[in-house]
Every structure is written in C-alpha cells, then in structure tokens.
Write a structure and sequence with these properties.
Layout lengths: L29 H29 L8 H21 L1 H14 L12 H10 L19 H12 L7 H5 L2 H16 L32 E9 L2 E8 L5 H14 L4 E11 L2 E3 L3 H11 L2 H12 L6 E10 L2 E9 L6 H18 L4 E4 L12 H6 L2 E10 L1 H6 L5 H18 L5 E2 L3 H12 L6 H4 L2 E8 L4 E11 L11 H10 L11 H16 L3 H8 L2
Parallel strand pairs: 9-10
Antiparallel strand pairs: 1-2, 3-6, 3-8, 4-6, 4-7, 5-6, 8-11, 10-11
Main location: endoplasmic reticulum
Pathway: Metabolic intermediate biosynthesis; (R)-mevalonate biosynthesis; (R)-mevalonate from acetyl-CoA: step 3/3
Family: Belongs to the HMG-CoA reductase family.
Length: 540
C-alpha cells in the first residue's frame, strides 16, 4: 500500500481546484441564503410571540396549534439550525478540509493539528492547498514492518509497554510508540525531540513508555567560594532571573571571603509498619529494637544488603497495636532509597523468627518521611543535614546587594521567620530555597520530587561587627542527594556533576562526593537569598 509519508515530493504543474467550502452545497449564493434565513428567523419569531400574547389574553390553551403556527415553528427551527451552522462555518470548513486530506489515501493515518490554522491562512491568501503538504507535518519515515507494528499497538494486540523487550531496540520502540500516540490522540508531538538521546541508558532505570525527551536550559552561577574552593553551579530552570540572582549572591559571598559549611548528619531513613494482635506485643518489639544490647546483631543483619549500607539508628513510634520502625543508615555516594529498603527487608525477615505473629503491612509507612513535608524530617533530619554560613561585608551589601544590613535583617525577621510562622509553615522559614534546590536537582540528575523535604530550610540573618556586617546562614536538615544511580548516569546530568567535581562514586572515601554535593546545594541556597531586589531590577 502506498504511504503518503514515504511518497516523494515531486513538482507538478497541474492546476488544482480551490478547496471545497462548506457553503458550496447551497443552491443560492451565501449572502442571499443568509438574508433569507435571517429574515425568516425574525419574522416567525415575531409571529409566534404575537400569537402567544393573543392566546394568553383570550385564555386559549397554548398547546392547541393552527396550521400556520405549526409551519411557523418548523421555519423557526430550520432557521435556528442554519444560523448555528452559519456561526460555526469556520469549524465546518476546517472539518471538511481535513476530511479531504485524510480521505485521499487510506494509509494516511495522521494529520497535524496545525493544519487547520495553516489552511485558514492559505485560504485568506487565495492560494490552493497542495495535498503533498502532508510531508511538512514532520511525520517520521518508517519501514513497512514498523507500520505494521504501529497498527498492532493501536489495535491493542501488541502492548505499548512491551515494545523495548520485543524489538530489542529502545530508540525504535520510542519512535513507534510516538507515532502510535500521535495517531490515536490526533495531536502532534512536533517540537519534542526524539533523536540524539541514548534510550538504552534509561531502560529499567529512569523512564518507561518513552516517546522523546524535554529540553530545559541550563545556566551556571558562580564562582561560589565555599570552604576555600570555587565551584561553578549548574542550574536547570525555565524561571527567568533565577540564575542571575543566585549568581549575584555568589558574587557577594566571594567578595566577602567565601562561605563555610558543616555537615551535621548523613543518614537515609526508611520506616516500615508492622502489626500485632495486641498493643502489648507491639510494645515488646519496640523495647527489643531500642535495647542497645540488640543493636549490634541488627546491624549485622542490616549491613548484609550492601557494602556501603551501615545501620546508624533505629527509632520506633507506637500507634495502638501498630509499630512504626524508622531505620537510619549511611548509603555511600548513592541517595540510597533502594539500598536501605533491602536492609530493612533483611531485618524484618530476621525479626519474624522471634516474633512470628508480626504482620508486615508495608515496607514504607510515611514515618520516613519521603517526598512529603514532615516534622520528623525537620527535627531528626533525613539524608544530609547541612548548615552553611557567611559574613557579608558592609560595603558588599551596599554595592552588590544594593541595600543595607539593617533592612535585610528586618526583612528576614518579618518575612522568613514571622511571616512563615503566621502561615504555619513547616520547614519553610526561607525566601525561595526550593527554587535553587530544584534547579540543581534537575541539572545533576537527582529526584526532583525530593525537593519537598530537601528544601526545608531556615534562614538566619544578624548584624555583626558593631552592626556593620551581615552574618547570614541557612540550616537544611534533609538534603537528599546522590552522585551514583538514578538520573546521575545520564550524559547531561553526568556532565553537570563533573563540572562540580563530584561525578560518580569516590572510591577512596565513599560518600564524600554526595556529601560535597549537599554542601554545594546549601551554599547555593545561601547565595540565592537576595532574589527580590534583583527581580525588580530586571523587571521579571
């Protein structure tokens, strides 16, 4: 069967007829037909209203109709139908035009949704539409075998999710799935790139049912002088002025001698929930887990899951006969969710030997707490807990930040502290930490959803050195990052990690790369504190 998508575009001198219009089937010219139906509508409407008033005056039943009234109702209905069609003539015209193209060849499955707009403009310019302009809709050229697979996907005989395993070619699977989606949805994916991406690298790790990838611009802020070293911070964002404002904060920190950071804690958490028949039995397990004499035994069982996983702490919360067990462990340079989940499962299997009546309800019970704002993360921490500080000189505050120390201290108190308290914020005692965290997370292949707890931050500002200089700090108790696994292995994200000097795992000191990345995130948040003045200056 000949396919329009593979048909070569050849020059032709054949004179094409103008596109068929919706008004062509009318026996009279359009302006005469419009005049007739407009006149008919208002005439019969006036007649029926007049008859209705007479019947009300004479107390005649309204449902008893004369022949003239029946005819008037028929004419009114016909004129209303015509007028509805007349005011929708553009829609009718576009529908007929698309039918002409799609019916030209049975193998033409897809027409770009931009066609209606293109046809309308060409009609205004009185230029005939060529059927071969289907080629301009960026339909991917596929082989006959791929065309057959597309038909099978559309019919449902071949599941879309199984294309990678069936074909053994991830890019080909994405291309076929993309074409099938465009056909079934009737919407174009033009503008979403498909080429120049390693689809094999994300199989079973980053994404399923792929049809392409989105593009997010990456800017750099810096140099950020942190702990005596300079870092150029990559930020992937679509928010104008974000990189510029962070860059200005980096400039202020650099001019004042740099910032310092301290890692307070490094431990990922996972909290399963188990149930017993009585609260007494649940309490017995709680006492067993919190007994220091049992910790070494549980650590050995837990640490079997990985050479990097090392159990640090176990905390329990009791709710009736349900016990919530919060495990905390180090995870090397990985963010560590999978690693800790395996260790937790090992411990649960071990506990069931001594507590056979224990019923494991879920491996994660929101006491962790993952991807949700929670007081337990704000107080206990999750991932990396970091505090970062700097002293900004008075001259820098005036020259670079365009303000004064007293104004910044007052604004921080009224906005970030009092204002957030008035709002009942949980971990939100900052200006816009999530902006910087999200931008760095996307650029470096972190889990963007963990921005929720990773953006927990309290910003403190204080006038020091007799009120001349500004001491500013950010305390972030739950920065969840990794330099291996997940999206960190993608080419673009790996390049951003390499720019920061934290790509991959540190073999000499496992975990140091991820800890450094967390410190850089905190330092970047510190640099982004002066967002509002810069936004107003740029008119963003």
């Amino acid at each position: 069967m000949d396919d329009v998508r593979r048909r070569p575009v050849t020059p032709t001198t054949t004179t094409l007829k103008p596109p068929q219009k919706a008004s062509d089937p009318l026996p009279l010219p359009l302006y005469i037909t419009n005049t007739i139906f407009f006149t008919l509508f208002f005439s019969v409407a006036y007649f029926l209203l007049h008859r209705w008033r007479d019947k009300i005056r004479t107390c005649s039943p309204l449902h008893v109709l004369t022949f003239s009234e029946i005819a008037a109702l028929v004419c009114l209905t016909a004129s209303v139908i015509y007028l509805l069609g007349f005011f929708g003539i553009d829609f009718v015209q576009s529908f007929i035009s698309s039918q002409l193209i799609t019916s030209h060849d049975d193998s033409t499955w897809y027409v770009d949704d931009n066609h209606d707009h293109q046809h309308h403009q060409h009609q205004k310019q009185q230029q005939p539409k060529c059927l071969f302009e289907v080629e301009s809709f960026n339909i991917t050229a596929l082989s006959e075998e791929d065309d057959e697979i597309i038909k099978q996907v559309i019919s449902g005989s071949t599941p879309s999710y199984s294309l990678e395993s069936n074909l053994g070619d991830c890019k080909r699977a994405a291309k076929i799935r993309r074409e099938a989606l465009q056909i079934t949805s009737g919407k174009s994916l033009e503008g979403m790139p498909l080429e120049d991406f390693d689809y094999e690298s994300i199989l079973g790790q980053c994404c399923e049912m792929t049809v392409g990838y989105v593009q997010i611009p990456v800017g750099v802020a810096g140099p950020l002088l942190l702990d005596g070293k300079e870092y150029t911070v990559p930020m992937a964002t679509t928010e104008g002025c974000l990189v510029a404002s962070t860059n200005r904060g980096c400039k202020a920190i650099y001019a004042s001698g740099g910032a310092n950071s301290v890692l307070l804690k490094d431990g990922m958490t996972r909290a399963p929930v188990v149930r017993f028949s009585t609260a007494k039995r649940a309490a017995e397990l709680k006492l067993f887990l919190q007994d220091p004499n049992n910790f070494d035994t549980l650590s050995v069982v837990f640490n079997r899951s990985s050479r990097f996983a090392r159990l640090q702490d176990i905390k329990c919360g009791l709710a009736g006969k349900n016990l919530y067990i919060r495990f905390c462990c180090s995870t090397g340079d990985a963010m560590g969710m999978n690693m800790i989940s395996k260790g937790v499962q090992n411990v649960l299997d071990f506990l069931q030997r001594d507590f056979p009546d224990m019923d494991v309800i879920g491996i994660s019970a929101n006491f962790c707490s993952d991807k949700k704002p929670a007081a337990v993360n704000w107080i206990e921490g999750r991932g990396k807990s970091v505090v970062c500080e700097a002293v900004i000189k008075e001259g820098v505050v005036k020259k670079v930040l365009k303000t004064n120390v007293g104004a910044l201290v007052e604004l921080n108190m009224l906005k970030n502290l009092t204002g957030s308290a008035m709002a009942g914020a949980l971990g939100g005692f900052n200006a816009h930490a999530s902006n910087i965290v999200s931008a760095i997370y996307i650029a470096t292949g972190q889990d963007p959803a963990q921005n929720v707890e990773s953006s927990h931050c309290i910003t403190m500002m204080e006038a020091v050195n007799d009120g001349k200089d500004l001491h500013v700090s950010v305390t972030m108790p739950s920065i969840e990052v990794g330099t291996v696994g997940g999206g960190t292995q993608l080419a673009s994200q790996s390049a951003c990690l390499n720019l920061l000097g934290v790509k991959g795992a540190n073999k000499e000191n496992p975990g140091s790369n991820s800890r450094l990345l967390a410190s850089i995130v905190a330092g970047s948040v510190l640099a982004g504190r002066d967002r509002v003045p810069h936004y107003l200056k740029l008119g963003c």
